[in-house]
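the two lines:
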Amino acid sequence: MPELPLKSGDRINLANAEVVLADGHAEGLEVTTQMFSGFGVQKPHCCPSAREAMEVSQRRDVNLFVIDSALTDMTGFDFVYWLRRSGLNPNAFAPVILLIGHARSSDIIRARDCGANFVVRKPAPPLMLLQRIIWVARETRQFVQSPNYAGPDRRFRILGPPVGQKGRRRDDLSVEIGEAKAPNLEQTDIDALFQPRRVIV
Amino acid sequence: MTTARLITVENRLAALFLRPGGKSVREALGAAERRVLAKLADLATTMPATTGRLRELVDAAASDPEHGLARVYEASNQVFALAGAMGFTGLADAAFSLCDLIEASRETGKPNWEAIRLHADAIRLLGAKSAADRSDAAVVTGLKQLSAHIQRPAGNADSED
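prediction for all of em together
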């Protein structure tokens, strides 16, 4: 994974990035558009409705979606849900930043489960949004496809399945410890591990 | 039990970032902030009209509470986001409090119209003030207390009386 710019003097190049900005409120869309123009995106696709965002998704290979939770014809959550299951390659796997203002309790669950890479609470100033863009550009999480969820792995840290539950992944380890497969170490062997040794470099 | 399929995806955004050219992070942030501030300054002049429309939506919602309150919620959410971006914390907090109130009334199915109208009136007043006065702390504190009082479960309210 190459190092991405994080310091203020580092350079970023978003000139040719295909970015979809979707917001059902005209004023909000204008603010976000100005922000991305400042970041260097030359031609962002500005979409007030999910229908327009879907049309762009079908025509262009998009590098980043920035979707507000309120669109004119459906919620941003529903759009991201559609995108992840659209079968559009590579757009179904493109990074999505979801913007939400006042969030109902049900919205929090939907934001988690719709398949967005990142949820950002509004108002989102340029510094915060650029940090999140760099974050999703550094993304190394795998994608999960299952009947109930499609999107980036929701587990940021791999800690295994929840206590008392059997893991659903092939690489999930069992919490039960099996029988020893080799004899225990003698105490002298353990002591030897901790003894200083001369190492020739 | 459902089976999950894991897919390793190429991050195309990272490759774009590192192409030669572009601008420094400092330049990008500076340009974005200048453009956003200029746009917000334009939008600040329309805030009285925006908050005035919110008040009209509240009046219209009485005849069709379900859809009407959804429209008020969206409008109030938008005022919250814009006012927050402009730094009008008082106005943003008042709009957020109205969103809280409507959300609570959806759950109970009993909108408190008096409280909703009071919020909308306060938002209109704060929106109509000059930029420096849009953070009237006393008004916002009162609205939050009212909203919290209405959302408090009946049992708790009784115990304090």
